[in-house]
Amino acid sequence: MADGVRVLKVKQSVLANNDKRAEEFRAELKEKGIFMINLMSSPGSGKTTLLVNLINRLKKDLRIGVMEADMDASVDAETILSKTGARVIQLNTSGECHLDAKMTSEGFHGLDAQGLDLVILENIGNLVCPAEFDTGAAMNLVLLSVPEGDDKPLKYPLMFRRGDAFVFTKMDARVVFDFDVDKAKERILRLNPNAVFFPVSAKLDEGVDALAEYLLARVREYKEK
Amino acid sequence: MADGVRVLKVKQSVLANNDKRAEEFRAELKEKGIFMINLMSSPGSGKTTLLVNLINRLKKDLRIGVMEADMDASVDAETILSKTGARVIQLNTSGECHLDAKMTSEGFHGLDAQGLDLVILENIGNLVCPAEFDTGAAMNLVLLSVPEGDDKPLKYPLMFRRGDAFVFTKMDARVVFDFDVDKAKERILRLNPNAVFFPVSAKLDEGVDALAEYLLARVREYKEK
Q1: In which residue ranges of chain A is pLDDT below 70?
Q2: Which of A182, A205, B17, B143 is surrounded by the most beta carbons within 10 Å?
């Protein structure tokens, strides 16, 4: 493991208490002026790559911390640390397929979030379970990669209902995959009329600026209120 | 919904009883001479596309039934029916992220499996939960698509431990994605020394014959014993 990556084992709370716990944690974050993003997607949709690109764009304006959730690995935390220098903690869920509010809040307190403006939770790669648990985040950011297909909102509706903003990743892969952006948007909007969309290609460095600007505006708006 | 697709709602049993239930169901399948495959992967790894190609290759030699699991859609069952004519049932898990032995056995009894040689369960697209539940299948077939990346065995070890055979899908996408087949194999073999591998491209129609032959041999061997 790289130096400086802390690994914390986090345990699930009782599901019934999760909503209450999430509200309390959200209030604590608000009090401290820290905007939290819950980043969710399938495995391999490009969460970590996008995160590296976003942090390197935002770090001149915001002090950023990252919580990397994995079942029992720490490769992502090491990547974030080495490529961005952001404050990072690895959360191990011991096989659980999601983070709940208790686990997230424990991770947050392990991160030493003093003075941060933005904390990003990279949730477990999964389109099912993470959607069922409010983590206390101010925003759910959901990624859908071009190779996964534009039909995923039909098959995993809860995730697409729970998202606030959606990023279509690996847009450069449309040279080999059929992915109808309009169809994907329409399917998500049917579940979630307030959804906003950001098509990006980390490889071609396209679209990430627009997403970074949007997030910066959201963080500033949150801190001013 | 297309004509002829039956949709069944299946409910989870208590986890502690699952292993016993799975063994009983496996014995029932053996008694009936029906080989069952549990097909697992991330969302959008190409399970349904591979299934269509496999069935169309195997249907001259084997009588095949399919159980399509989804949280609340039935698009995959319709695709299988219209593109292969195979006997198919749609299992809806009402939000559950996996199939257990009870749900699978209920699905099987709903399928009318009389006279079948091979039943394929297309599990929920998820690299986490489905790995935790023995369905009673004779074989776990796990797909990993090139766009997901060769690091997935490091991050979702249980799934790669539980697989018997592994299919690397969307091999044609290596023109846009780095995916080191040797590295992926090595990572899986470290978890699972008996793993066998099939790189395929459904788009270029490459590698599916080898997989179909392997499965046919496994079904015949099972029925002879």
Answers
A1: 1-16
A2: B143
